[in-house]
Amino acid sequence: MNPEEIRAAFDRIKRRNLFAGFVPLVFPFFAFAIYQKDLFKQPEILFVSILPALAAAVWVHLVNWRCPACRAWLGRFFTVSECPSCKVKLTLKLNT
Ligand SMILES: [Zn+2]
Prior knowledge:
This protein is mostly helical. It contains three helices and no strands.
């Protein structure tokens, strides 16, 4: 993989993280829209509606959040700029 491919792959990984962070929120949103205040009296429905969000969070951390070059886990922080394992640069340095 050349540096451009690695950055493009890392961009896709970050986009999937974003997607996985927001899309599952529609489930608790609809659960609340349907049941409204009764939702909090029915913890099993509340729990089921947040399961997709929990599953997505686990998927992001365990499956998606990996180095595009060596597949090493990138750690707990989403501000990583290089792979902790193979040291490949994942983002361009910004001129700030
Ligand atoms: Zn790596």
